[in-house]
Predict the structure of S-formylglutathione hydrolase.
Amino acid sequence: MSGAPALEKLSSNRVFEGELTKYKFKSAALGGLDAQFNLFMPLNPGGAKVPVLVYLAGVPGEDDDWDFGTGAGFYINATKPEYAKNYNMATHITVELPQVIEAAGIAIDWKRQSIFGHSMGGHGALTLYLSSTTKQYRSASAFAPISNPTKCPWGEKAFKGYLEGGLAEGAKYDATELISKATEPLHILVDYGTGDNFYKQGQLLPENFLKTARDAGYDEFQVRVRSQEGYDHSYYFISTFASDHIHFHANFLKA
Amino acid sequence: MSGAPALEKLSSNRVFEGELTKYKFKSAALGGLDAQFNLFMPLNPGGAKVPVLVYLAGVPGEDDDWDFGTGAGFYINATKPEYAKNYNMATHITVELPQVIEAAGIAIDWKRQSIFGHSMGGHGALTLYLSSTTKQYRSASAFAPISNPTKCPWGEKAFKGYLEGGLAEGAKYDATELISKATEPLHILVDYGTGDNFYKQGQLLPENFLKTARDAGYDEFQVRVRSQEGYDHSYYFISTFASDHIHFHANFLKA
């Protein structure tokens, strides 16, 4: 009897040189709630194991209060009692999803993982990469990430809401705090647009992340943060630079 | 006093190396109804005129009966009295849009136009290209086009509904009928997926178009119709081959 829940296939579409499949399963990390994810697998006649690049969405939630609630767990493990059962998004991404996919017999080489994301998902990608003591991911990248959440309204609200220890506990989920203490080699790429209203409102703070990375001794070959003139927070921005990011990760995943 | 209605800018997003703008105007060809279109313009510091590639969407309509109604004019000019005032989509695309855009001072070189589209929009692209006596478009391409509408349920319904002369009048809006009579050099690319349910149901009939093109003497360098294994009718199919189609048109637009 396997401990991993069964994957239910919801839909499947041929796209580019592979197949995109939508799956559903009962997530223990999310308190038994249904979790969904999409998995792209290349055409792979030999069945050789392939590397995986995890993408974390920005705002998948359905709530009016979109930065707090069902779909918007900030990719942390909640510690406040009222959330601790259903909001363990960090465990969901880093531990549960690989277990569930592996148990389903899908041919992924888990020794070759990288991670990227947009906005809150960019925050998730950077923090899960930087906080992994097992070097789970080979590289991380982000579009318009919330780069210093203990210093912006969205992050303050999330950490005070989800964490018993509030902002102090939130430091371990803050990319800027994490990189200030980092010592190992890093592979990070960040893009943000100067026309992004959330950037202008001080929700993203990529400059804080960049300055702290440089202060910690990381040069542009290890941590690259690019300001993109005129781009906003939307899908148009992501789609413009998505190809760049995938090529960036391929450098490390193919090795 | 200009005859062309004013363009209202609804939104604008930087994307790739340019700007995508959504416009609205009161369309005479559509009986005074509001018409919307998106225009991508490359960053163009010199202001030189650029060629235009027209994309016709498949099902932009909002109706339950999606293949008949507001958004789904089949890219023809209706002749039945109850539709003739509001359904002149052929005129809207080929005459009115260029006039309105030109009047707004947008720097397009109208001598370099090509056209493509998806599903009903693919039908529109092929028929507007093939029926232009002025060679308005240099090339045409289509994703999963309705290729022989006088022989499929969707086309029969549309032509009988919109046209006084029914299917007989519809022949001039049927890509297969049009290519059977064509004599001039052509530049056409068509892709369809073998996993497309509408293809399987006989709504698209690309084989009819291909066979008729060959019978009319067009080889694969002038009319290429590609069967794509396993792809369906969705955006995943379009996105996979969009780059191919744009490069195809660039060959002719850059000349």
User: Anything to note?
Assistant: Chain B touches chain A at residues 13-16, 20, 193, 195, 230-232, 234, 236-237, 239-240 (CB under 8 Å). The two ends of chain B are 36 Å apart (CA to CA). The first strand of chain B starts at residue 8 and ends at 15. Residues 60-64 of chain B have pLDDT under 50 and may be disordered.
